[in-house]
Amino acid sequence: xxxxVFWNGLNxxxxxxxxxxxxxxxxxxxxxxxxxxxRASNFGDNNSWNENYANTKYVxxxxxxxxxxxxxVFWNGLxxxxxxxxxLIINDMGWIDNTVNNLVNYYTxxxxxxxxxxxxxxxxxxxNTVNNLVNYYTxxxxxxxxxxxQNASSSIASSSINENKIPVSFISTTSGDLKKNVVYLPxxxxxxxxxxxxxxxxxxxxxxxxxxxxxxxxxxSRINPSRIILMKSVTSKNFFSDTNLNVNLQGFxxxxxxxxxxxxxxxxxxxxxxxPTGGANERINDLSITLVGYYD
Length: 296
Description:
About 30% of the residues lie in helices and about 25% in strands. The protein is built from seven helices and 15 strands. The strands form four sheets. Strands 3, 7, 11, 12 and 15 form a five-stranded antiparallel β-sheet that branches. Strands 5, 6, 9, 10 and 13 form a five-stranded antiparallel β-sheet that branches.
């Protein structure tokens, strides 16, 4: 090491800390140890460990007691909470008593499990009831069946009254589907349905009364109202009005309704109208209708 370079500009050394030991520069460890001992002596105890000072900061072993938290050791001999000494733990008996008393306001695990089970049973019961509703008729369906039964009974009763009258019937059979559009049904078994009443109308040849209707179809998926109405005109093909023969075929592939009194005079015009409400994909397939009555 070139001293002319390394020590260049150094005028002196700190007195006492660096020494010349036979031409070798050394650190004065004796002076360092003396300084450490002097500072330690200011605590009033030994030079390496101030035991008196440490005793003021840490628990003495003689005062430590048994810190084992095992209940068989630390709580040995304690029979209940009230036996805890206030010097060992805060003995807030008011809080303890209040907490114990409040436990009566909580459900036990078994009680909770029971209530959950009961709620689940109730939910299943509701689901089963809703699912079973598909096995019952709606109010409208029941009313219609009762009406049909009543009409059939009335027809039987009236037949004895009209037994001397000449019966009359009109047949209309359509091929294909009747859906959401209003159309007019032809007489006979080979006619075509029409969107105009005038195209499907016919002339009454003698005075008569139409008392009922019977119908049958391959499929009836209509869940919206689907009415068959017998219409009448006393003037021309451009002026038709509804008679009282008006029956809803909704959902019924076959049936009858025999308690009407739609009268026609010779020369009047008649036409059968199919009048649905909604249900674009609902249909009645291959519908056959027979109107029954008697000559008046």
